[in-house]
Amino acid sequence: MDPLDFTGRAVVVTGGTRGIGAAVARAFQAAGAHVLTCARTTPSSGLPGLPAFFPADVRDPVQAAALIAEAVRRFGRLDVLINNAGGAPTASADTASPRLHAKVIELNLIAPLHVAQAANAVMREQETGGVILMIGSVSGTRPSPGTAAYGAAKAGLHHLATSLAAEWAPKVRVNSLVVGPVDSGAGPDQEAVARTVPMGRAATAGEVAGACLLLASPLAGYITGASLAVHGGGEWPAYLADLRDTAYRAEK
């Protein structure tokens, strides 16, 4: 039996209409799962190739619960939740408004808790339990200048995963992914970003999705409360800049 075969399983991916979320949704769908994605609004371009969609602002606990209820209504069960919705604009901590700080923390920390609570209520009643994955960030493991509230929220998310894993075991496994730079085709120069990563490039969204498949599968059946680093080896420390340059020249 293929441990990465999710045929008949039900999966919810928050923020699943673009970027990492869309890649995760497509990966589970390709593995045979029934997948429901959500976002605050339906993209105007539609959702070509994506699974079922349900509009929900997961910062609202009522809408978060409605999302999980919709998955159960459609599929009769819930096996995997990927808490992917998140993000933040760049803003200096000394000038950003209190409202911005609150909204960033609400989206990246409180919202995943809302959805996880609703998912756990379903999973704990199932014989096979379930899996909850938090899409974290390296911003939550090192200084995050320009996105201080985001980094603090992601640090909290990693800790939240360990706490929920302890509370909800053995029926529900909870893990987080510590994701580094991902090539989105937009934003900062990807070559410049990649030079800070030992692997020499940013991750693809598909590689993050592959890590989600692994952690949600029976191959990770005894893994809970863990953080899986999906960051290409981390970041070169500044004091090793000369060694980094030598290593990159050797690869060329």
TrEMBL record:
InterPro entries linked: NAD(P)-bd_dom_sf (IPR036291), Sc_DH/Rdtase_CS (IPR020904), SDR_fam (IPR002347)
Entries under Pfam families matching the protein: adh_short_C2
Superkingdom assignment: Bacteria
NCBIfam families per record: PRK07856.1 (NF005893)
Protein family (similarity comment): Belongs to the short-chain dehydrogenases/reductases (SDR) family.
Name of the molecule in the record: Short chain dehydrogenase
Species assigned in the record: Actinoplanes campanulatus
